[in-house]
Specification:
Blueprint (H helix, E strand, L loop, with lengths): L1 H13 L7 E8 L4 H18 L3 E8 L1 H9 L5 E3 L2 H11 L6 E6 L4 E2 L1 E2 L1 E6 L16 E3 L5 H13 L10 E3 L5 H8 L5 E5 L2 H8 L7 E4 L16 E2 L2 E4 L5 H13 L11 E6 L5 H10 L12 H50 L1 E7 L5 E3 L1 H5 L13 H7 L2 H15 L6 E8 L5 E13 L5 E10 L1 H19 L3 E6 L5 E4 L1 H7 L3 H5 L12 H12 L6 E8 L5 E13 L2 E10 L1 H53 L5 H32 L5 E4 H11 L1 H7 L2 E5 L3 E4 L1 H17 L8 E8 L6 E8 L31 H11 L4 E6 L3 E9 L10
Parallel strand pairs: 1-2, 1-3, 8-9, 8-10, 26-28
Antiparallel strand pairs: 3-13, 4-5, 4-13, 4-14, 6-12, 7-10, 7-11, 15-16, 15-19, 17-18, 18-19, 20-21, 20-24, 22-23, 23-24, 25-27, 28-29, 29-31, 30-31
C-alpha cells in the first residue's frame, strides 16, 4: 500500500505545472571558497534553468553564518545543509520537512548516507580502540562539525565512554584534510573526519594511506570507504515557510529526475536526489549530546502549556484514543503474526528447509541456521555473509545454470526462480539442494530489489534418481532377458530390450501376455507349482529350465532365474532368462570331448601301467645276471670291463626306480579311495619312519607343528610328505645339518582348507624355476651330483590336486626352500576323483 502511494505521489509530482516566472534561490552550506563551491553546483543550477527557462534558479554557496542570516531574513527560498544544521534551523526557523535527500556516488555505486572516521598514525601503538582515546589530543574541524566531531563523539556516548573534552581538541577548521595532516604531522594523536577523506586524499596522492589506521572500523555491505561510526542520511533539502507549494512540487520533481555525471575517480561526488530520508537518528544524536538547540531546557508551567498547545493537546487526546485502539489492533495483529510465523517455522522445521533473504542491489544476504546446518556449518562460521558466500559454495559446473535461472526470473520470463544445484559441504562432499525463490519488491526503475526463498536438501532424491538411472541402463543394456510380471494376474509389466528382441514382440503386445503364453511346456497349474516355493517363502529364488516360444513360432531353450520381490508395497515377479541354446550345444560338445578324453586317458594309463609292469621282469633278469657276472667273474675282468659292468648295473637300478615311479604315478590317476579323517602329525611321523635311515645318516632335525586333522587318502598323504621331506634331505648343503620344519595354518582365502608349509635350509634354487620343478622328469641338477628320476615333485602335485588343493614353492638359492600346499580340513567326507 505504501509503495503504491509513493508511486502515485511521484507521478503527481512529475506532472506538476511549471512554476511561474520569477526567481528561486537555493542556499547551500559551503566551507569551500565560493568560486570553488559555485563550480560544484553549477551543473545542477544550469539543469534547473534549462528545465524551466522562465524561472531564474540560483544556487548560492554560503558560509554557516551567512546561511543562517539568509534564512532568518528570508533571502533564500530553499536550504541544502548537513543533517545537524537542518535540525537546528528547523527548530529555530520552522523549515519544512525534508523534501529530498542528496545522493552521492563513487562512479560505481550510489550512496545516500555517510559517517565519520576515527583515525591515528599507524605507528601509534597507544591508540587501537575507543577506550584509548581518553586523554589524547584529537584533531577536529570545530566542535559543532557534524561529520568531523559530533558523530565520533556519539560513538563514545553509545559505548558508555567519556567524551573528548574541549581542552583536548586540536581545532583545525575545514576542509577535512587539515585533521588528517594534523595527525600525520604529530600535532594531534587522533583525528575526526568525514568518512571518505582518507580515500580522497590517497587518490589525489596527497597522503600514503598506509601511514594511518582506522579505529573502531565498522562493516557495512558495499560501503566503499572506511567508517568508524553509524551511518546517517545525507544532506536534506528543505523550504522556508514563504515558499508556495507549487514551487516545492516543481523542484522536488525536477531534482528526483536529475542524474549528474560522475567520474570514475570520485569518492563522494554529487549524483542526484532521492525521496527524503528519516532524520530522526540525527535528532536523537543531537538530543543525547545536548547539541544546540537541545542544550537548554525551557521553563514552562502547565497553564502555559495549555494556553499554548490547547488545540494540540485536544488533538493529542483524540489521537491517543485512536493510537490506543490502533495499539490494541496492533497487539492482536502481532499476536496473529506470531502465530503465523510459528506455523511457518513449524513447516520449515518439518520440511528441513533453509531460508534466505537477498537484497539484489546491495548483495546483503541473510540465511537461517538450517541453511548453514545443511552444509555442515553454524551460521556464525560463514560470517560475514553476502551473496558471494553463496556463490563460493555452489559447484562451479552448476553456478552458470543457477545464474541463468535467476536472469530468467528477473526478466519476468519465469514467475518464480527454481533451480537444482550442488553446495560444498564443510567436510568436502557435495549436497544437492532445490533452490526456490521470488522477487517480492523492485526499485523505482523496475530492477529486482528484495528476493526471498528456501533451500531444500534433495540429496536422497538425487541419489534415488541416479540409482534408478543406473538400474534402467543395466535393465535396458543387459544381454540377458529380464521380465517383470504381476504376482496376482501374472501379466507382464515390463521387459528389457534383449527380451523383446529375442521373442519378437513389441512392449505393448507383451503387456497383454503372461509367462504361459511363451512357455508351451507349462499350463497354469504346473507353473504355479513351479513358483510355489517363492509364494510360500520357502525359497528366495527358483531356477529351472524350460523352452520359450518366439512370435514366429520357433522355440529356444531357456534357463529361468525367478524371484518374488516387493516394490512400493506391490508384489512383483522378476525373471532373468538366459538363452542357453549355445550353452546346450557347447555342453553336448564338451560331453563328447570329455568322454573321448576319458577313454584316451584310460588307454594311456593302462598302457603305461602294462608297459611299466611288463618291463620290470626283463629288467630284473638283467640286474640279476649283471650281479652274477660281477660276483663270479669280477676278478677275471680288467678294469674297463668292471667299469662297464658297473655302468650296466647302475643303469638297470635307475631304470627300475623310474619304472617304480611311473607305476606309482599311474596308480594316482587310476586308483581312488574314500577319504578318511587323519592327523597331519601322524602322517608326518609315518613318512619319517620310512626315511629313518636317511635321517640318521644326515643327522637332520625335523619339527612338526601341525596339530590339525585333514581328510584324505592315508597312503597318498604319507607318500606326499615322504617325497617332500626326502627332497629336503637330498638337497641339503654340504657341511650344514639339515633343518626341516612342517607347520599348518588356516587358509584365509578358503576356510575349508588348511595351508601346510614344509621349510628347509638346503641349497634352494632359482625362483624363476619355481613352476618347472613340478613337471614330469624335470631335473635341476646333474644325475651324477644328485640321484633321482625327476618324478617325485610331480607325484606331490598330483596327490595335492587329487585332494582338491594346490602346491607351490618359495625358493632362495643357498638359503633354502619352502613348499606350500593346501589340504581339506576334516569336516566333510570326499571321494578322491580322477
Amino acid at each position: 500500500m505504501k509503495c503504491r502511494c509513493l508511486w502515485a505521489l511521484l507521478l503527481g509530482l512529475l506532472f506538476v505545472a511549471p512554476a511561474q516566472a520569477g526567481e528561486l534561490t537555493i542556499g547551500v552550506l559551503s566551507f569551500q571558497p565560493k568560486p570553488v563551491a559555485a563550480r560544484t553546483w553549477s551543473e545542477l543550477e544550469a539543469y534547473l534553468n534549462r528545465l524551466e527557462p522562465q524561472l531564474n534558479v540560483r544556487i548560492l554557496p554560503l558560509a554557516q553564518d551567512e546561511l543562517e542570516t539568509a534564512i532568518s531574513e528570508r533571502q533564500i527560498d530553499f536550504v541544502f545543509t548537513n543533517p545537524a544544521q537542518y535540525i537546528r534551523f528547523r527548530t529555530l526557523y520552522g523549515l519544512s520537512a525534508p523534501l529530498v535527500t542528496l545522493v552521492r556516488s563513487n562512479g560505481i555505486r550510489s550512496f545516500y548516507s555517510f559517517g565519520g572516521t576515527i583515525f591515528a598514525r599507524a605507528d601509534n601503538a597507544s591508540v587501537n580502540c575507543l577506550e584509548d582515546l581518553a586523554g589524547k589530543r584529537v584533531a577536529i574541524a570545530f566542535d559543532s562539525a557534524f561529520g568531523a566531531a559530533q558523530v565520533q563523539q556519539y560513538e563514545l556516548f553509545l559505548a558508555g565512554l567519556p567524551l573528548v573534552q574541549p581542552d583536548h581538541y586540536v581545532v583545525t577548521g575545514l576542509p577535512h584534510d587539515k585533521m588528517v595532516l594534523a595527525v600525520l604531522e604529530g600535532r594531534a594523536d587522533v583525528g575526526f573526519a568525514r568518512a571518505g577523506t582518507i580515500e580522497r586524499m590517497a587518490a589525489a596522492g596527497t597522503i600514503d594511506p598506509a601511514q594511518l589506521k582506522v579505529i573502531h572500523l565498522q562493516q557495512f555491505i558495499d560501503y566503499p570507504v572506511m567508517v568508524s561510526t553509524h551511518l546517517y542520511p545525507e544532506w536534506p533539502l528543505a523550504s522556508l515557510r514563504h515558499v508556495p507549494s507549487e514551487q516545492k512540487k516543481w523542484l522536488i520533481a525536477a531534482l528526483l529526475k536529475v542524474e549528474l555525471p560522475v567520474s570514475s575517480g570520485s569518492v563522494f561526488a554529487l549524483k542526484g536526489f532521492q525521496p527524503p530520508a528519516d532524520y530522526s537518528s540525527t535528532e536523537q544524536l543531537m538530543r543525547d549530546l545536548r547539541v544546540a538547540p537541545f542544550d537548554e531546557l525551557p521553563e514552562m508551567r502547565i497553564a502555559d502549556v495549555w494556553q499554548t498547545y490547547r488545540g494540540t493537546l485536544v488533538l493529542s487526546g483524540m489521537l491517543f484514543g485512536v493510537v490506543s485502539l490502533l495499539g490494541i489492533y496492533l497487539y492482536f495483529s502481532r499476536r496473529q503474526l506470531k502465530l503465523e510465523r510459528q506455523r511457518l517455522d513449524n513447516v520449515l522445521h518439518g520440511t528441513s528447509a533453509g531460508t534466505w533473504e537477498w537484497n539484489v542491489q546491495t548483495g546483503e544476504t541473510r540465511f537461517n541456521e538450517r541453511w548453514a546446518e545443511m552444509i555442515g556449518y553454524a551460521l556464525d562460521d560463514l560470517a560475514p555473509i553476502s551473496i558471494q558466500t553463496w556463490s563460493d559454495l555452489v559447484h562451479p559446473d552448476d553456478l552458470k545454470h543457477a545464474e541463468l535461472a535467476l536472469k530468467r526470473h528477473f526478466s519476468g520470463d519465469s514467475p518464480v526462480y527454481e533451480c537444482e544445484f550442488r553446495l560444498r559441504h564443510r567436510d568436502g562432499h557435495w549436497v544437492w539442494v532445490l533452490d526456490r525463490g521470488k522477487v517480492l519488491s523492485r526499485t523505482e526503475e523496475g530492477q529486482p530489489l528484495m528476493m526471498f526463498g528456501t533451500h531444500q536438501d534433495i540429496s536422497e532424491r538425487k541419489l534415488s534418481e541416479l540409482e534408478k538411472k543406473r538400474f534402467d541402463r543395466i535393465f535396458d543394456q543387459s544381454v540377458n532377458e529380464i521380465y517383470l510380471f504381476d504376482a496376482d494376474t501374472l501379466r507382464f509389466l515390463q521387459a528389457n530390450r534383449a527380451a523383446l528382441d529375442n521373442l519378437g514382440y513389441s512392449e505393448q503386445e507383451l503387456r497383454q501376455m503372461t509367462p504361459l503364453d511363451i512357455k508351451p511346456e507349462y499350463d497354469l497349474a504346473s507353473f504355479k507349482q513351479a513358483i510355489q516355493p517363492l509364494v510360500e517363502g520357502r525359497a528366495d529364488k527358483v531356477v529351472f529350465e524350460t523352452v520359450h516360444q518366439r512370435k514366429n513360432g520357433l522355440s529356444y531353450p531357456a534357463e529361468i532365474h525367478l524371484q518374488l520381490v516387493e516394490i512400493d508395497n506391490e508384489a512383483i515377479y522378476v525373471a532373468i532368462v538366459l538363452d542357453v541354446a549355445q550353452r546346450k550345444k557347447a555342453e553336448q560338445s564338451l560331453r563328447v570331448a570329455l568322454k573321448e578324453l576319458q577313454r584316451s586317458n584310460r588307454d594311456l594309463e593302462q598302457f603305461a601301467y602294462i608297459a611299466s609292469h611288463d618291463l620290470r621282469e626283463p629288467l630284473r633278469m638283467v640286474s640279476s645276471y649283471n650281479r652274477l657276472l660281477a660276483d663270479r667273474y669280477g676278478d677275471r675282468l680288467d678294469e674297463d670291463a668292471r667299469d662297464f659292468l658297473a655302468y650296466s648295473l647302475d643303469g638297470a637300478q635307475r631304470m627300475q626306480q623310474l619304472i617304480n615311479d611311473l607305476l606309482a604315478y599311474s596308480r594316482l590317476t587310476t586308483q581312488g579311495k574314500a577319504f578318511e579323517q587323519l592327523s597331519l602329525t601322524m602322517v608326518v611321523e609315518e613318512a619319517q619312519k620310512n626315511l629313518q635311515l636317511l635321517i640318521e645318516e644326515t643327522g637332520a632335525a625335523i619339527s612338526c607343528e601341525a596339530p590339525v586333522e585333514v581328510e584324505g587318502d592315508r597312503v597318498q598323504l604319507i607318500q606326499l610328505f615322504q617325497n617332500l621331506i626326502g627332497n629336503s634331505l637330498k638337497f641339503h648343503r654340504e657341511g650344514i645339518v639339515p633343518a626341516i620344519r612342517i607347520s599348518a595354518t588356516a587358509d584365509s582365502e578358503a576356510p575349508s582348507m588348511v595351508r601346510v608349509a614344509v621349510s628347509d635350509n638346503g641349497i634352494g634354487f632359482d625362483p624363476s624355476q619355481a613352476e618347472e620343478v613340478f613337471a614330469m622328469f624335470k631335473r635341476l641338477h646333474d644325475r651324477e651330483q644328485y640321484a633321482g628320476s625327476g618324478i617325485g615333485l610331480a607325484l606331490c602335485k598330483r596327490i595335492v590336486e587329487n585332494h582338491g588343493g594346490s602346491i607351490w614353492c618359495d625358493p632362495t638359492p643357498e638359503i633354502g626352500t619352502t613348499f606350500y600346499l593346501t589340504l581339506p580340513v576334516a569336516v566333510n567326507r570326499h571321494r578322491c576323483s580322477d
